Amino acid sequence: MDAVRVGFDTGPLHGPLSGVGYSVDGLRSALARRSDVTLVDYLVSFRAAPGAGVRRLPLPAALAHRCWAASSHPRAERWLRGLDVVHGTNYVVPPVRTPRLVTVHDCWFLRRPELAVGDVARAGRVLRRAIDGGAAVHAVSHATAAEVRDLFPHAAVTVASWGTLTLASPPEQAPIPEFAGRPFVLAIGTLERRKNLPTLVRAFGAIAHQHPDLQLVLAGSDGDDRPIIDAAVDALGPTLAHRVLFTGRVSDDVRSWLLHHAAVLAYPSLDEGFGFPLLDAMQARVPVVASNAGSIPEVAGDAALLSPPDDVDALATNLQRALVDSATRLRLVEAGDRRWPTFSWDRCAEEMAALYHTLVVGAR
């Protein structure tokens, strides 16, 4: 079988990496090890400095997205010649005549357009136009695929779930002195509405008096829910509010330290397209308490205690079990040991390579 030449969008690899960036990096690395795929990296940016061999579409991304949301111009053939497939790895794929594939990570902002502003809102409009124009969709979980099919009934959707990220080596010393020697519940992610952190704060408040040394650590950059989270913390009162700690964005090694030293990982999201922190916690052998929303049950399997995202009492009960019930903790850790290795980047790359070849054959 001849290698399929894939134009591969490396835009998410520029700047500080988010979950999308880590996933694109994991997929690209696995695809690069295959002989049946030849990657041709491209980037839609006027300002970014691409590395060697990267084809840059010399357009400001915001301007390109405005244009592509309304029309198929400017077309990208002049920059993406000689390709069999063009893969937009983050909701946006340029208009070209060759087969197109676009990755959809989750449908949160597509379901709630009132929360989408700026480049996020434009990406949603470009995605809709691309699907209407025949672009195939790669969904990162079956839950996301179901959402895409509901929003775009005519879309051709294929699922290839991500692999497990490799945790950085944690530093030996506590990187944040306040954490040393004290148990904490950890939540990782941007402080945005989707993460449902006010519910976690209230659940923490319901059990905190039973654990005088327990802290709640919220590790992530500020987002659109920070004022609501602050209000929830203030509502705990002065005797508990000081036990909720905000770290801001953390480095990979600090993130790893937090995961390896947490008593529990809490992941009460209103929606998730995949959920890397679930697998991260399993690698670190930390019990997981999460919601049953989106892809979380699909990724977590039997390695987490799940509850409805709006049920504070159920979340508090699960946190308490994970903290004090040694049999439950051991069961969750052992289930995680079995589960996280099943999420393989090589398996993901194999499924993506098969999809690329299917798109090429279908276009003949």
UniProtKB/TrEMBL annotation:
One Gene Ontology term of the molecular function aspect: glycosyltransferase activity
Organism: freshwater metagenome
Domain Glycosyltransferase subfamily 4-like N-terminal, first and last residues per copy: 18-159
InterPro entries: Glyco_trans_1 (IPR001296), Glyco_trans_4-like_N (IPR028098)
Protein name: Unannotated protein
Positions of the Glycosyl transferase family domain: 177-337
One GO biological process term: lipopolysaccharide biosynthetic process
Keywords linked to the UniProt accession: Transferase
